[in-house]
Records
---
Amino acid sequence: MVQSLDYLKETPSQTAGPYVHIGLAPGAAGFDIYRQELGHDIAGPNASGTRINISGTVTDGFGAPVKDVLIEVWQANAQGIYAGDGAVEEGFRGWGRVVPDFETGLFSFDTVKPGIVMGREGRPMAPHLNLWLIARGINIGLNTRMYFPDEVEANAVDPVLGLIEQPVRRETLIATADDAGYRFDIRLQGDRETVFLDV
Amino acid sequence: MTPDYKTSVSRSPNYPLLSLQSSDSEITGPTFGHGDIDPIDNDLLRNYAKTGDPIGERIIVHGRVLDENDRPVRNTLVEVWHANAGGRYRHKKDTYLAPIDPNFGGCGRTLTDDEGYYIFRTVKPGAYPWRNWVNNWRPAHIHFSVFGTAFAQRLITQMYFEGDPLIPHCPILKAIPDARAIERLIAPLDLNATIPLDSIAYKFDIVLRGQCSTFFENRPEGN
């Protein structure tokens, strides 16, 4: 017998189920309980940088919108600093919760465009949003990133995009510009499946 | 993909996840303070009470949030939601024929203390049917959402109750291949923490991914 390594084991994940909104976005579930729901404001009014809107849908293996998804966003401020990791503007949280329209599955949220974040070994990471998706049918939350189409140079040297062996798959992480700002569609499965990350 | 849980079939990626070494993007995460929530938010017997107490078995659910190195995760946000005593959710999409309880909302939240400890008071949720196979029933469960200190620790899970005979039949639980891992989601009855003549208690400890300071890479002294 060798010695055992007595680490505790991570609590297993389970799906958030169809009624995740009750706990995390009760307003969307149709009732009002808390003084304030968390996650509505990613970047407060004091946040510097360019105000942007991001919209899109999450679709399943049939291309049908996943209307009961809940997305959490985690991002740096315009200077590339994460809240809690340095000085950020008062009211800049960098975190938010996004619930799509239950009828169409279209999500939309406002924030500021994040700056370049310093990555490992001093390699800069192109501006990006970290996204975490939970829903009925998803046993463990899916992590991905959204990059910007107008950051061609930074994207070209981004260490995470560079890890994706097939260049065609890198494109699944890059939003497209639209009238309101940026469009980012997430495909869980199948044709042009979005790259998901084991972080 | 876990085909017995049918919804997972079209909602699971076909390709493997891309493994990353952690960067600042993953090791940071949002923080919450007592200004974000109210003291009553962890008392589901009262936080939606309109005309009286909710109907059901009064329970306390408590425990600690730890990391894999057995260190408490302090001041982290724990959110819960669950059905009422009849298995009905207060959600506009839930059409189960069991009635809504006018005095029960079904969600709560709290911050762990310096020992990583949290506590909720609520009613024990009922089992409910769902459209998977034609006769599937979810065991009584409470959904948990926990943040930890890094976005990479973000966890959503479900807590079950010791002795529930529906547990071995549930396709969502059986999405976990390891029987010992399933056991870690089952909260034991905790007689020591019951309040006599008031509430039964269950204890549910939650373990998040460990966090070590980086060895060698940028801090020669390691931890």
---
Amino acid sequence: MAAAAASSCGGAGCGPHCSSSASAAAVEDAAAAAAEKVGRLSLSRECGKCGGGAAAVAVAGGLGLCGECFRANLLGKFKLAVTSNAMVRPTDSVLLAFSGGPASRVALQFIHEMRCKAIESWDVSNSQALPVFGVGVAFVDESVLCSKPRDEIEMAIEDIRSIVSSLSTGVKAMHIARLEDVFSTESEDGERRLREAVDMIGDDTGREDFLRCLRMLSLQKIAMENGYAKIMLGSCASAIACHVLSATVKGQGYSLPADVQYVDTRWEIPVVLPLRDCLAQELTLLCELDSLKTQQHLDRPSNGINSLVASFIKRLREENPSREHTIVRTAQKLKPFSFNKFSADGYHDFLPSRLRPKFQKFDSDESTFSEILCLMCGSPFSESELQNLESTKHKAQKKIDLYTAHCCQSCYFQILPAGENLNEHFFSLLPKLWTGKMDTISDSHSLLRDQIEEYLLEENDDGN
Amino acid sequence: ICRECFYIVFEDEIHQTIVENNLFKPGDRVAIGASGGKDSTVLAYVLSELNHRHKYCLDLFLLSVDEGITGYRDDSLETVKRNEIQYGLPLKIISYKDLYGWTMDDIVKAIGLKNNCTFCGVFRRQALDRGAALLKVDKIVTGHNADDIAETVLLNILRGDIARLSRCTFITTGEDGPIPRCKPFKYTYEKEIVMYAYFKKLDYFSTECIYSPNAYRGFAREFIKDLERMRPRAILDIIKSGENFRISTTTRMPEQGTCERCGYISSQKLCKACVLLDGLNRGLPKLGIGRTKGVAGGDSDCEQQAKRPERSRSSLQGKHGNVDF
């Protein structure tokens, strides 16, 4: 989400050319200059879809579209993603994660429009149809770590509120949660622990990734406490492309497919990504065309691998606008995990009958979810990580060793402080929602060990 | 770490890589792909040393490809000829002129600087195999280092080349083919190779190819160097990711076959080299470059670059020849 918010228009978005010549390059440069001047992707040619004479907008793939068709194109992708992956059922309440950036702003707008349309259908059918899904909005307030003046932050958050309340049919609720609340319900204690934990992380990239983990934890907490069935993120193709490369660079090739699918049910509350096929440039442009208000003053400056990857991809995009889609498509060909689809019994009962066979086929193929997930980031463990975990379990002396072994190699390297004392202190600061799970496993583990020891003692007695 | 200890650690790491991956067996005849550059020169030197020290019992040869680039390849081949004498390894040189009837100088005259790397990469790969067959060797080793492999992982993600992505981290490729290729430097950093060559005062040629003067500075290579500065282990992390990628079983992979004209391995009816050569000989050098209309199915195994618009290709061009797996 942060990556998506940080994206910006990068000049001309012409589709790829099969060949180039000097004159074509000159025309291209002129078009690029003109596009840069108006600050948007635009070319003066007819809409490729309806033939209208309005100023056309170029989308990846080279097709020029007028404003209306461009918008319909993006909305169509959103709706297709939602329906063909059964992301939202009529009985669901959906929590939309809103950061203030263009991508989540578009997601907010589109899910709102889908809901309005569903309500109209429901009204017309005299309540005989299925109920309409609910929508709530969540904003994670990370201002405690922000170096900007307090009043500026307050104004920005007020903007966030007004954007949400400005939607014609009110959303169910607006939830603004402070990031430190995942540490403790007491404000000062939570803040202290958050600051202390973040300060212990020496690696810039590690700090960023740690905050990303906390953000997801915060969203999960909001959703669980308020009865939401789904969490919808505004992650777009551009942000996902950045994530694909970042994860590759961090050695997370095994787990990366988990993060790039439409559906992710490894969390308590399933997470869905309906904007996965849309580019940040397109979403930013749509916000401009539709005068959708965004709020990006809360974005934090970024150092480290994630921002290096983002600038690399930005550079590639300038040369070939389809590059981001290519990266996402490559990742799509990697094997997803069993939790990358809905598999609970009866989940697809609400689907129109023509769609049900597709999902039922998957249901019958379903295997048990057996992945071990990283304590912090939720990444599935690779074989070498599993081996490390198994060997640690056998010889673990302290709880700290189990905690450490339940972190993936990437988190171990870039987040955990070096040194055992520091490590112990770091884990003592972490949210109970994370370490509590470990404590439960640890307790059952030691219980099992006690039983084994009793058995050995009995065996010994018999021997005597 | 002092110089002597660096030598020991460097050589032992490569030895461990060779042993753990069972790259060779006693009696193997091994051709070292030798370009005269630092990677292949260090590889020839280290392999020769380890062969003596650890008694691999290998017959080692130097195998060079002469692309026919005036002012560049002829000078680098002089370096390899000196290596032949210094290391006592027999040298075989095979040229594009002999194999294809065209030198790179001729090819560049025909098509210009753009795209000439496609020809060179495809031709060199096949030339290396043909030279190895002439020497009757069991294995080919190349000097691809960790930086090269990490770069290839990234490039294959950027290009959407899932077939290559699934195998570009293999330390041995072509095991089911006539002559497997090995990369003993898979886990060795480029800067360590440079340092080793420098301290050992090894004789190597370091000028970049004159027909792709900016190839070394491709976006991907630049990105990897930035990464390495920020987090040195990123290169090995990329390789580890590449090793851990699991390709979805629903993804269709190209089928292996042979070229009906020259018998070389290919997933198409004609291998890429024959397609390119046919274009050259018919005065249509652009044939086989860029988007191919009417050709269905996966890429040819010989194809160096994915079919992409010309404009985007230059930025993704890696170091000369080294992205060709």
